[in-house]
Amino acid sequence: MSEFFHSVTLDRDKCLGCTNCIKRCPTSAIRVQEGKARILSERCIDCGECIRVCPHHAKIAVCETLDILDRYEYTVALPAPSLYAQFNNLEGPGTVVEGLKLLGFDDVFEVAQAAELISDATRKLINSGKAPMPMISCACPTISRLIRIRFPDLIEYMSPLLTPAELAGKLAREKACRETGLPPEKIGVIFLTPCPAKAASINMPLGLDKSYIDAAIPIKEVYPRLVGLMHRAEDTCDISDSGRAGVRWGSSGGEAHALLSDLYLAADGIENCIKVLNDLEDEKLNYIKFVELNACPGGCVGGVLQVENPFLAKTKIKSLIRYMPPYRNVLDTQEVPEDYRWTYKLEYLPVMELDTDMEKAFQKMDEIERLIKKFPGLDCGSCGSPSCRSLAEDIVRGYSTEEACVFVLRDEVHQIANSLSRISGIQLGRKNTADAETKED
Q1: pLDDT under 50: residue ranges of the chain
Q2: Which CATH architecture has domain 8-61?
Q3: Where are the domains of the chain?
Q4: Which helix (H) or strand (E) holds 247?
Q5: Residues with Cβ < 8 Å from 128, sequence gap 6 or more?
Q6: Do residues 207 and 342 make contact, with C-beta atoms less than 8 angstroms apart?
Q7: How far is it, in rounded angstroms, from Cα 298 to Cα 275?
Q8: What is the residue-averaged pLDDT of the chain?
Q9: Residue 118: C-alpha distances to residues 246, 249, 303, 433 (Å)
Q10: pLDDT in tens, 41-72
Q11: Do domains 8-61 and 358-441 have the same CATH topology?
Q12: Going by CATH, does the domain composed of 358-441 fall within 1.10.15.40?
């Protein structure tokens, strides 16, 4: 498995080098060079912000299509809770569950079921007093990767539990094996994803040696065909194995609300999440027990692979859960099962470090500060880097030159022009003097 697998990628033919993406990337993972964007793989966290803002649709998410169903003898769909918020006048998740079976899946295991189990496990961990506080949710892979590369001191506070999608994949495969008698490799467990980060996490899982999910299909790929089948599933709206707590995970605050505690903080939108992580690092939120962070605005309903307006989708979730039971899934033990946890602890990934040698790193930092003073501080992006500091770092790392800054280049051109002018003046003066001496002779 590659250390850096990403769903977000670039279509170079569509890229016009407009620099919109470099200003929105939260980890400064994009550069524009020679008129085309370039994604720095080691820094990318698959948040999808570049997909969201690219006016030319040059950033795309690489996922599977429905054709993958033909690769397996038996397939199970894992619908994210936010999928339910894509439909109008939905009376219950069961309508979507039945629609997915009509679409070609042999069975459906709702991720909302697993979300309720993870909520119960999280409550037990918090109440045990054995977990560092405040506990940070790991349900959003983008946030987990962001902490891993930018906030290493917070790694110990991350929840050690599987994401609902991974737990759903595990439970779905076990259920399918029991019911069909097929070996695990002949069963395809397919997640219907709202964002590229969750698609990337299947190939590069955090805390796991191997994902329990085989592939991810974007919700926007499934939606057009699924919506056409929904009318045939109208009488099955009550067929669902999830409750209110699990479905609420689809929007911001749903996970935290399921903990049945007021001592939580929920934030959505990548900039807001970074502010919260900075406050956590500065120990400003020690009185909080749980922190839920969603990189997408509004939570998973705001993922770039959705079709519905995220604010309208949140309203639809509220309407959908009104008459649902609070819970349908809880653990049958007081202890959190070991197979609900990561198989290994996450480690810091120092992709932001200037050098492994501390002395050289300080020297490079001094050089960066010198360069920053030379630059205008406009963060205009004309150089192809997101900010003057980023350009200074690129120069120190050997990726760029000072002349990439148009203002530095302008000043150098002026200096050269002035020097040429002085040289020309001197040469002209000498010529005039020589001509005058010739006339006198």
Answers
A1: 1-2
A2: 2-Layer Sandwich (3.30)
A3: 8-61, 66-340, 358-441
A4: helix 244-247
A5: none
A6: yes
A7: 16
A8: 91
A9: 9, 11, 21, 91
A10: 999 999 999 999 999 999 999 999 999 999 99
A11: no
A12: yes
